[in-house]
Amino acid sequence: MAFVGFISDSFTSEIRQEQLSSVTDASEVVIYTGEMERSLFQSLIFLNGIREAIIVEKNYSTIQELPAVVELTTKFEDELEQFETSFSQLERLLGQDERLPEDLTELYSSYEVYKSITRQWLELGEEEVDQANLMFINSIEPYFRNNIIPEISLVRNYVLTVQDARNKELDESLETAAYINYLATVLSVLLALALAVYIYRSIANPLAKVSASAKKIGEGELDERIEVTSKDEIGELAEAFNSMAEGLQNKTVSKAYVDNIIESIQEAVFVSDSNGILIRANSAATELVGYKEDEMLNTPVKNYYNLKEMGKQYDEFHLDKGSFEFSLINKNKEAFPVLFSEAQLVDNQGAEVGRVSVASDISERKKQEEEIRASLKEKEVMLAEIHHRVKNNLAVISGLLQLQTYSANNEEVEKALSDSQMRVQSIALVHEMLYESESLAYIKYDKYINDLLQAISSMHMNSKEIKLTSEVEPISLSINQAIPCSLLINELIVNAFKHAFNDQEEGEIKVKLRQHEDEITMVISDTGSGFDIEKFNDSDSLGATLIKTLSDQLGSKFEILENSKNKGSVFKIKFIRESHSDQVHPSSFSRNNPKS
To answer: The whole model's pTM is what?
Structure first.
């Protein structure tokens, strides 16, 4: 009987030590997790205090002169150090868990980014107060809200999971101890029964209280206290738990802190419950819609949404976890545009308990967009009119040259006037096609070449059978390249008409235009008598000078070859096509412009 009692007492003592160690570890895990969460929220509050102090005290030359900033900065650094200490202790306690490294690594990575940008912000605040204020509002607070808070929640949830598992282990140990005590009671008869009652009262009941209280504290009920009056290890453990709960209750971020964070956000924030009733609105929201907060609370949040006109957009985008353009309704029943986003609030079981919506007024931006569109439309109409007037003026010049040609008595003068007329007509064709095109900066050059070749051919009709053909891929050119390219084609074809077929009654002039990636190759060949290439290179005639000058203007590679299949000449020009990004042109927008 004494042996059974000794074995039972030894086994019970071992279980007690295991339970004491497990519960102590669990309490430390909860303490360090709560300390980490408190430090992060407290650091953000100190940062906000620094920001407000800097804004108020702009008369100081540097922020180091601000006593409040120096004190708050020191407290901020202390909170970061406290977070890192608690993080190391938590990592030590739970380092054997397989899920923990990923959760803690993500939290610590986000913390490192948070620490980096806050210290950059502190440095920026020394010189650029306004820019630092914008950085706090647009970068630090959103990052804290969207990255730090979710990840610390993951770690907290994990700690609760671990605590539940350890509580289950405690319960199993209690059942084992009770079973052993029951056997000892049976074997030891009355004495063993008395011993079992003593063990149950001295161990089982206190441990059950400790286990139940630990579970409640782990779930966030920090008002829970363990009522154990014994002075043994269980009593010490109970006192440790009570001290831990009191410390957590004092250090946990209060609702006032959370309200301060919401209130400091510059965007309008609307928080509603699962029934769509508004339960919180910050000052930015009340100012935006023109109501007082007490007028808005306990009313349907959708009273402030312009669902009559934009309900379709709301239904389509509001839960896409992104921002979209929407409109709200103010107290005067006037709709105004906002950039809007909405997210669900869920509990630990994933059930929706409410929604939070954020809105930013974009009325000024929309007004500026309308002004820009109107300005662009005016410039577009003006540029179209310029092209139209240039085309008409060039047509007048071409007509004057033609009249001069009719009255010229000298053949050389007549040819010179005809050549000039053709050059002017080439430029006029470009402006005509730009005026008729959907784009005022680019023309469809394949269509243009056909019109140009037809005009050149009509100017050189005679008794000879000279065919003018083309093989042109669909290509668009900017006005900067279309005009010199057109003049170059005109010079080469007119030159061929004049000189290539003096001794022939028939022949062919062919124009080819190809594009490979951004390089355009233009080949103009004839089946005429050919000419001296070296003599052309050394020539200073007007035609040769124009050809060389226009080639340089295009930035092209210019080659003159002999026609390998037939006698005659081949002019090969290669140049790089200007892309749309190479030009800044107000008329590059598409338009519909009827011919006038």
So the answer is: 0.36
